[in-house]
Every structure is written in C-alpha cells, then in structure tokens.
Here is the input.
Amino acid sequence: MATKHEQILKYIDSLPVGEKISVRQIAKELTVSEGTAYRAIKDAENKGYVSTIERVGTIRIERKKKENIEKLTYAEVVNIVDGQVLGGRSGLHKTLNKFVIGAMKLEAMMRYTGAGNLLIVGNRTKAHEQALKAGAAVLVTGGFDTDDSVKKLADELELPIISSSYDTFTVATLINRAIYDQLIKKEILLVEDILTPLKDTVFLKIGEKVSDWLRYNKETTHSRFPVVDETMKVQGMVTSKDIMGVDPETPIEKIMTKNPMTVNGKTSVASSAHMMVWEGIEVLPVVDDYQNLQGIISRQDVLKALQMIQRQPQVGETIDDVIASQLVDMGGRGKGEEIYRCEVTPQMTNYLGTISYGVFTTIVTEAANRVLRAYKRGDLVVENMTIYFIKPVQIDSQLEIIPKVLEVGRKFGKVDVEVFNQGKLVGKAMMMCQLLDRT
Here is the structure.
C-alpha cells in the first residue's frame, strides 16, 4: 500500500496545470498533518511539477520533458529575476518560447513580439498593453508598475505581467544564464531516459519458485530478474548462476541475491556504467525514493546510450568543457607520451590569481584521458588520484602537461602526469583509472 507521502504526490500530479496548492488545503483534502503535506509539496517542487512563488503561492506547473528543458515557465522567470506578479497569475504555468527586449519604437517592437513570447521592457504602458494583446507576457524592468487597465487585461488573457527591480541588461543575463544551465542539464543523460519501464519489465515476486524463473527464462530468453515483495519494493536479484542445480520447487527468496545494487531514475548513465563495469553487473533494477521498482537498465542499454552521447553536439559548456578546449595537443615523443599546452585563463584561477586546485585536477584528468585513448576508445573514471605537489601558477601562464602511461590493461590504466611552467616542474600527479569501453 502506498504511503501518505506517495498518495499526496499522486494527488498533486493529478491536479490540472495552473491549479493553486496550499499546505492547509492538501492537509484537509487528504486528512494528513500539515507537516506531511508540506514535505510532499517540497518533494513535488524538486521533481519539477510544482513551483512556489513569493507573494503568489504554490502552483501546479507542467512537468518538463527532456526535449523542452531549455524552455522556462513564467513561474520560473519570476523566481529568476526576483519579480513581483502584477497580474495574470493564472498563466504562470505557461512556457515561454523566447524573450524580446523592447528597446525600439512601439511599432517595430510589436513586429518581433508574438504569442508565447516574453517582452522585457521598461515603464511603457502602451507596449505592455499591445504585447498582451499579441499573446505575449510582459516583464517590466526597473521596478516600475503598470496601469490597472493593463493588470485587468493580463488577468483576462491569463498572461503574466511581472515587475523586477533589475535593469533590462541584468534581467536578460539572468534569464540567459538559467536557459544555459538547463542546456547543460539536458546534455547529462539520466537513467530515466533509457530505462526499460515497469510495464515491459519481467520480475519475480516473493513466494514464487525456481520453476517460475525457468518459465520466464523460456518466454523472454533473459536470465536476470529483479525480485519484489507485495508492495513492489526490490528485495533481490536472481540470475542463471543462482538457480544452477537447484530444485525447481525451491522458493525464489532462498536463492536470490538479497539487497542488490539499485539505481534511481535521476542517476547519470555514466555513473551507472561505472557501477556496472566495476561490480561486474549486467542488469540493474531502477527504483524510486521508496525502493519501489520502476524498471531496469542493462549494460547494453548503457553502452548504447554512451555511444549516442558521443555523436551529440555539446550545447551548454561546463567548466570542464572550457578547460578541455584550452588543452592543445603539441604532438609527442611516441605512443603513451604526449605533450599538451594550456593557458591559465581568468576563470581558471582562485581568489589569489593562481590556478585553482580543482582546475589543476581537471587538466591532469583530461590529459590522462586523451593519452589513454591511444590505447583504447572510451571514457575513463578516476579511481584514485595522488597529487604529489602543486606550486602556485599565475594567471596568463603557459602550462606544459606531459602524461606518461605506466601501465594499461583491459579495464584499467595507470598514468603519471607532470606539469611544467617555463621549464620548471609545478605539479605532479599519479592516477589509477578505470576504462569504460563503448564498443
């Protein structure tokens, strides 16, 4: 039976988009304590189908799909720009397609403003009115208000009109940054994106026998199945190795591997790959926060997904991508002993103006990754890193990075990395890496 927390989440998920939610209302509706209702609403907010806005309250919003994660709802815009909603609250759940900066004459401004847009403009009441009539929401910068007639129109059309104390440039920068961060998230493939869903997952139940495993094996040709109890909580895993030589009447719980490794839908595919390779696991059950079975992923699914990521263009750059782009291959002395050059840019430094420890770690890891690719295609996961020393390196310095492969096997590599500045040794690291094959 579902817990109260799960029941509340299911109830919130069933509410129409745009519906206002309150702790007191949920507590009364489902006869639970206000503390339980509050925790469930916060969980729903973390899962992305509820948004809380200061001075407005909590509203049900549309849960984002992976393909439109770069689009923001007006409710999210309010939070990003520390805004105040002047009108059109019932439209906060809607998604904006693009934003337009109103720094031109009214007629020209309207040519660029259409349905689903957000017009960012100052205290130009006529522009506010025309934008709403064109189907666009309005963000008023500089902390200005608007006419009551415009607020009334916003309410009628269910299009938000928001006021922010920031100037136009700052507001545009904040929204751009939010979209950029979401693009980075879009690039990170999660288990929930590739799992075999529960309706297509074959599983055994506590109380079933080895004979049931044999039947499922014959029907599906699969040999690994999760085992669940009556509440769908994962209790074990059964493989062909477990049932060898066992009487078909033996209860499945007698031979299953108890407390198996599981992953959550929000776990990254790369992390799951690491887990599967390191532990020698072919199939992982996917569970929710309450250990209820949601589906499975296989090693084949993970490797296929990693191959797909390789073909995708990177849209939002992380700091690792920026550092990797700075690393220039200068050729080498032979296989396993390349030389790379990297300039220390302002974003690579700490508050003292010298290269940060985290950036140094990324540089040596990237150099090791590149040199190991000469031996084997795929990615590496650092299992152990020892940095012997690191000396301060000033901004705008040119670094020379020399990784040397000491040992390489089928699933691991050992690399020594030396970093020089003007011919002097400024850093040295030793890494043991696990290799994730993508073939």
